[in-house]
TrEMBL record:
The keyword Metal-binding applies. PANTHER family: CYTOCHROME P450 307A1-RELATED (PTHR24303:SF31), HEME-BINDING MONOOXYGENASE FAMILY (PTHR24303). This is Cytochrome P450. Its cofactor is heme.
Length: 600
């Protein structure tokens, strides 16, 4: 190993003049790199930075002047990614962006700024920004964090007594974080309950399980929709023109979506359709199970934005969440006991994949039960909100209903009454599913403009981490508010317009980064249920568009999301949603509803 004389290199650098400074530093840097002195490379790199800063009178940034950064830079300059606020320390400058490419996670001397230098609301002594959190507790956390981004820029700090919070919203910062730190930000309260009751969760992969199972629910979906319809006099109801055709009101779209998503999760996981026969095996009715899962998710997220007092004593909210989760867990255990064997071995199900992964591990059965609990707990509520948004987007954009209908006819042929009357409904093969372009673009655009949350899963830092020129301390909780750049022209052309075609490969309107719209997260810690949720929504769209025309009560304005729960949603009771059956379905639907009325 070649021994490097640090004093000699300093003397050599000091002899150079401003005129030949750049050339000399480049030569010195190359000589240093070839010396294999890896343990002191960064020290020399810092010397180059300090020397350039001390001798240059130009406006050249630190990173731009340093040959190390020139050779290692992988991120774009972010000099324009700051807030327009007059606070100078909120500016995210280009040398910070470039310096982050060193990817060092250890504390070093040099130009790195401290966590305290990041803009954010002024902390109080001892309690930091805890009072700010409590003061804004009535606001949806999504909303307050979005307001902080608008006020302070793409990096915002919150100082707390135990774990600090860093809020980031620039796509480049999000990408940098995801590549450096893989420990996903979890629902702490949910994790705490599972630890207390030994409910384990095993990571799994979906592969090709979701489509073969979900296509068998297409007939069920249409009948779930029909069961919720209420016929109205179209001449006295608002909505898009329907020519006086038979028109039906959906009193509450969530009654449709929550029931369907529950059936979808249990179908993918256990390979069984939940009907009246299956429901009798449970200790309570299906709608009670669904309500418990939905409410538990809401309480979990609410608790996660508050100080964890439940670790000191069981708060009222914590007790409610614990009771709800245990109820869901008990139901999952009964499900698994009843359907331990696959009712249709020809079609793979998720439980079998998890059984394989859990084999040989400690408490394998608890792991299987834990996965199903997590899927039902998160999959029912969140996927249901996505699906309701899709209902309203279809109703609001009648021009896309026709475009989608034409694509579906091209792939599957003309719709038939048998898709409604048969047990399975329309069969969707893998080959047909791959051909659906606009269908998938439509849902992707919904996730972009109508998120169920302004945030996506962030990260817990396991060690001190350099991010955009700042040294972020270990155990900082990093929250990602990716909705903030989502509607900015800087990152998405015509960002505030609903244009599904922007998601087509090569579109000039495409988002400029993969890290702009991340409803399910990204990378190794991406939500494992994303495949199920996406396929469910695609199936719902296929069946709705093939058999109905949709409209809503105020075609001039898309409904605003409600902010009184932990996640965003559309108030379906105050935003009437209407369906008009297509010609082939009209007599079949009328007969179905008449028979149902006689039975009751």
């Amino acid at each position: 190993m070649v021994r490097i004389n640090l004093n000699r290199s300093e003397q050599l650098l000091k002899k150079c003049t401003f005129r030949n400074q750049q050339l000399l530093t480049t030569v010195a840097f190359k000589w240093w790199c070839t010396s294999n002195a890896s343990s002191t490379t960064r020290k020399f790199h810092q010397q180059l930075i300090r020397f350039n800063n001390n001798t240059s009178n130009t406006s050249t940034t630190t990173a731009a002047a340093c040959p190390y950064h020139k050779s290692r830079s992988t991120t774009n300059a972010m000099s324009t990614c700051c807030s327009t606020s007059s606070r100078s320390n909120s500016t995210v400058i280009s040398d910070q962006s470039l310096e982050s490419s060193t990817a060092s996670t250890e504390r070093t001397t040099g130009p790195l700024k401290s966590f305290e230098d990041i803009p954010g609301p002024k902390p109080l002594p001892l309690i930091g920004n805890l009072w700010d959190l409590l003061k804004n507790k009535k606001k949806l956390p999504n909303v307050w964090f979005l307001e902080l981004c608008e006020q302070y820029g793409y990096m915002v700090k919150l100082t707390l007594p135990k774990n600090n919070i860093l809020i980031i919203s620039h796509p480049d910062l999000i990408e940098e974080l995801m590549k450096k730190e893989e420990r996903r930000d979890k629902l702490i309260a949910f994790r705490y309950v599972k630890e207390q009751h030994n409910l384990e969760l095993l990571p799994i992969e979906m592969n090709k399980v979701s489509l073969p199972q979900l296509t068998e629910l297409n007939g069920d979906f249409l009948r779930i929709v029909a069961d919720q319809l209420k016929k109205v006099d179209s001449s006295h109801e608002s909505g898009n023109g329907d020519g006086g055709e038979p028109k039906y009101l959906i009193p509450n779209a969530f009654n449709i979506t929550s029931l369907y998503t529950f059936k979808a999760v249990t179908k993918v996981f256990l390979g069984v359709k939940v009907d009246e026969r299956v429901e009798k095996l449970l200790p309570w009715r299906m709608n009670e199970f669904v309500d418990a899962a939905v409410r538990a998710t809401d309480v979990e997220i609410t608790l996660d934005t508050k100080p964890p007092l439940y670790k000191l004593y069981k708060t009222i909210e914590y007790k409610e969440m614990e009771d709800l989760l245990l109820k869901v867990f008990t139901g999952c255990r009964e499900f698994i006991k009843a359907f331990d064997k696959n009712p249709n071995p020809d079609i793979p199900r998720l439980k079998d994949l998890i059984d394989e992964r859990a084999a040989g591990m400690e408490n394998p059965q608890r792991k299987v039960e834990g996965v199903l609990t997590a899927f039902i707990n998160g999959g029912v509520d969140i996927t249901s909100r996505m699906m309701v948004n899709q209902f309203y987007r279809l109703a609001h954009h009648s021009e896309y209903q026709e475009k989608l209908y034409q694509e579906l006819v091209q792939v599957f042929g003309e719709p038939t009454p048998e898709e409604f009357t048969s047990e399975m409904g329309l069969n969707v093969s893998q080959e047909q599913y791959k051909k659906l372009k606009l269908t998938k673009y439509f849902f992707a655009e919904i996730l972009r403009v109508d998120p169920f949350s302004y945030m996506t899963s962030g990260r817990w830092l396991r060690e001190d981490t350099e991010l955009n020129g700042y040294l972020i301390p270990k155990d900082t909780r990093v929250l990602v508010v990716n909705y903030y750049p989502n509607l900015k022209e800087e990152f998405v052309p015509r960002a505030k317009e609903f244009i599904p075609e922007r998601h087509e490969k090569g579109s000039p309107l495409a988002p400029k980064s993969l890290y702009i719209s991340l409803p399910f997260g990204i990378g190794a810690r991406k939500c494992p249920g994303s495949r199920i949720a996406s396929t469910e929504n695609h199936m719902a769209l296929i069946n709705l568009v093939r058999h109905f025309k949709l409209s809503h009560g105020n075609p001039q304005k898309f409904p605003e999301p409600m902010l009184d729960q932990s996640l965003l949603y559309i108030d379906t009771k105050n935003n009437p949603l209407y369906l008009v059956p297509r010609d082939h379905l009209k007599p079949v639907l009328e007969q179905y509803l008449a028979n149902k009325k006689q039975q009751h």
